[in-house]
Structure formats: C-alpha cells, structure tokens
Amino acid sequence: MTSAQTLRVRVAKRQASGQDIALFTLVSADGAQLPAFEAGAHLDVHLPGGLVRQYSLCGDPTDKTHYRIGVLRDANSRGGSIAVHEHLKEGVELEISAPRNHFPLITGPGAGKAYLFGGGIGVTPMIAMAHTLHKTGMDFEFHYSSRSPAHMAFTAELDAAPYASRIHKHFDENAPTPAQQRADAAAILGAAPPGAHVYVCGPKGYMDWVMDTARAQGFPKERIHYEFFQVDVQKGGDSFTVVAQASGKEVVVEAEETIANALERIGIRVQVSCEQGICGTCLTNVIEGTPDHRDEYQTDEEKAANEQITICCSRSLTPRLVLDL
Ligand code: FES
C-alpha cells in the first residue's frame, strides 16, 4: 500500500471479452497479497489526468492474488472508460483504492433466495456475488441481459462456472433460442419464494425496469438492492452561496457550476471521484440550509435528514448553504 488510501498494482493480463469490453487482471506491484473484498465491492481506479473512476470487482472474493475488473469502452463517457482502454496495457502500473462495498450481498440464515440481474457491463458485481452465493450454498438465479450474443462478455467463464445451471442469458437481438429473448422480469420475480432479494446493476433504464417490476411484485425496498454506475444527473439551477465554515470562506455557486467547482475556484480542494452522485466520495456535512439532493448515493431517508450533501452534483434549495469544510 502506498498511502492510507491507495494500492499500487500492475496490469498482469488484459483480455478482450464481448464487443468493446476489456477485462483487466490487477496484481500487487510488490507481489504481496491484496486486501480481501466482499461481493459487490468496487475499486477507485486512478487514471492519467487526475481522473478517478469506479469499477466493480468481478473475480472470486476469496482469491487475494489478484483483482479483476471489466470495462466497457463507451464513446459517450466523460473520458474514464476511454482512458482505461488506452492507458491500461499489460505491465502498466497504477494506483487503485482498497475495495469498498456499497452493494453488499445479504447472506446467512434467513437471507432468502437471491435474484441477480446484470444488464450489459453491469454484470460485473453479479459475478462476484454468484461466486459467494455458490460457495455459501445459497439458492440463487443469475439473469444476464445483453444487447446480442456478440456484446456479451465473460461467456466462456460463465459457461464453465460451477453455478452455470443457475445462469440465464437474455438478448435484445439475435437470441440463439426464443427462450433467450428479453428477460421477463415479471414472470421471474412473480415466481420468487417469500423472503427473496433482488440485486440489479446495469444501464439506468434496465435498472428502473427491474426495480419497478420488483416493487410491482410486492418486494419491499429493503429487499431490492442496486448499484448505479451511470446516471443522467440534472445539471444547473439558480445560483446560491456556499459558506465553507471551517475554512472561513464563502463563494457564490453560479448557475452552471457545481459546488465542488466553485469551492476549487476559491482554493478549497475537495475530493471528488464519479462526479455524478453515485460513489459518495464527496459527501459533506451540512451545517445550515437545505440541499437540493441530485445524487443516487444517499437513501431517501438520508436525503430527508439533510445532514449530508454530495457536492459534485447536488445544489441548494436555500439561498445560503453552510458546509463543514
Ligand atoms: Fe461521487 Fe460526488 S464524487 S458522489
């Protein structure tokens, strides 16, 4: 570990898998074992130009010899996925965070059957979850939706997995069999036994569809688990004043800038990562004022408490917002 926050790793292997997807195997640069992680965890990957992006770990959580991430090259991204594809060649060293988990799997007695839904590259945390569910002997179904067979990644590995019989592949187009056309979430979740949990990750529309279906099937919110990796954050709004109380400074956040940008403008450095309200890196305590929460990170209850704000994307409903900075 190079600092309290980061680990130095090396790209030991890079493999193409599915259209525009690359799988990266990362090993410790000094050959040591890596910190353990839990299924659902992600890493912050530090990229050239100061970019930091989060990628879910998609390997076996019990294997400390390496981490594995899968990254879709997205031409419409804000630069992170393209930087990964261009920069991370085999042998390159880079900094990553230790694994963090905001998407934990519920295991143990009484946890109920798990329904894993992965859409596109959102399948990555589901692979780690499937490893854990299989090893702990829990009942689960794994539904992997992809645009077409050519877009699907991890196919050889999933076909050979000891839990292969639990995997259901679904395709929007060119499905090899009629049964593999689009997932019927209502039928799948309608057949779920009492106490089941749903886990979903993927594009926003896919996630909304799975979560809306689960709610319609009577799943309470504590049994619907999700992790966003890409959202459309509402941008801009009226200007307001932010007071950084500990620093003794204040700044007007203009209509088209973020609180984080405005603070940087007056010399207050803040830590941001995803810049779209999904990772929680920029969470800041609110001392006074009412935030206009625009993130997907905090729960509805946390947002209603107005004790913290994600300053990378959220704004203020009051003309003045006092922060603990
Ligand atoms: Fe990720 Fe703000 S930087 S939530």
TrEMBL record:
Pfam families recorded: Fer2, NAD_binding_1
PROSITE patterns: 2FE2S_FER_1, 2FE2S_FER_2, FAD_FR
GO molecular function: 2 iron, 2 sulfur cluster binding; metal ion binding; methyltransferase activity; oxidoreductase activity
InterPro entries: 2Fe-2S_ferredoxin-like_sf, 2Fe-2S_ferredoxin-type, 2Fe2S_fd_BS, Beta-grasp_dom_sf, FAD-bd_FR_type, FNR_nucleotide-bd, MRET, OxRdtase_FAD/NAD-bd
Residue stretches making up the 2Fe-2S ferredoxin-type domain: 238-325
GO biological process assignments: methylation
Protein name: Vanillate O-demethylase oxidoreductase
Key words, A-Z: 2Fe-2S, Flavoprotein, Iron, Iron-sulfur, Metal-binding, Methyltransferase, Oxidoreductase, Transferase
Domain FAD-binding FR-type: 4-106
